[in-house]
């Protein structure tokens, strides 16, 4: 329930509404409007290639070597974004914060980015779509990208002064997520209403719980 409702103080209760899909309570790190069929990729690590493996020391002997290393990273990052584009991936959902070079090439190749998602949000998206977060690409940049989720829409949403991301998924199960936008004059009232609604949903779950015959 925590990931399927958003409390908005400063508005009358009558402004409350139910929206299809889910609302991620953070802004786009990069937003590229897209139409038609969309694919989303879930990741839990930065996409900028590392110069060395964990626990391995990387020694640079000159400024020239350092600049060459940065150019290598830049080329690898651009190649990855080109690969996402060619696979029709237009939305990157990340629990990690992505570096500026990733955001730059995401904008260049039409990939929207939402970063710093919580583990609960990532788990909910995985449950809805049946797709697990992608493992790091490492040196295998040519491998096929198969673990992507179908997205029906992806757009900004303004809740008073807070910029959010409103996204819909093609659900892989019977669960069709909707998000409750709960409005009230102050936070305390919203918290009371949210708690009452959660209790009501819990009661309904118990009432309609399947009984084995």
UniProtKB/TrEMBL annotation:
Gene3D superfamilies noted in UniProt: GroEL, TCP-1-like chaperonin intermediate domain
SUPFAM superfamilies the record matches: GroEL apical domain-like
GO biological process: chaperone-mediated protein complex assembly
UniProt cross-references to InterPro entries, sorted A to Z: BBS10, GroEL-like_apical_dom_sf, TCP-1-like_intermed_sf
Record protein name field: BBS10 protein
Organism: Daphoenositta chrysoptera
The organism's taxonomic lineage, starting at the top: Eukaryota, Metazoa, Chordata, Craniata, Vertebrata
């Amino acid at each position: 329930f925590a990931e399927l409702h958003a409390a908005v103080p400063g508005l009358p209760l009558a402004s409350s509404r139910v929206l299809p899909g889910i609302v991620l309570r953070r802004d786009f790190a990069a937003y590229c409007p897209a139409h038609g069929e969309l694919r989303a990729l879930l990741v839990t690590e930065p996409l900028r290639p590392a110069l060395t493996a964990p626990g391995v020391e990387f020694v640079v002997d000159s400024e020239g070597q350092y600049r060459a290393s940065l150019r290598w990273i830049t080329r690898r990052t651009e190649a990855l974004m080109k690969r996402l584009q060619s696979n029709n991936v237009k939305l990157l959902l990340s629990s990690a914060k992505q570096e500026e070079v990733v955001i730059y090439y995401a904008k260049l190749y039409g990939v929207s980015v939402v970063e710093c998602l919580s583990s609960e949000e990532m788990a909910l998206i995985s449950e809805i779509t049946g797709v697990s977060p992608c493992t790091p690409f490492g040196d295998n940049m040519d491998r096929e990208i198969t673990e992507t989720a179908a997205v029906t829409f992806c757009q900004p949403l303004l809740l008073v002064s807070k910029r959010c991301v409103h996204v819909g998924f093609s659900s892989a199960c019977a669960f069709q997520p909707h998000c409750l936008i709960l409005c009230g004059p102050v936070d305390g009232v919203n918290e009371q209403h949210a708690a009452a609604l959660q209790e009501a949903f819990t009661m309904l779950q118990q009432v309609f719980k399947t009984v084995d015959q």
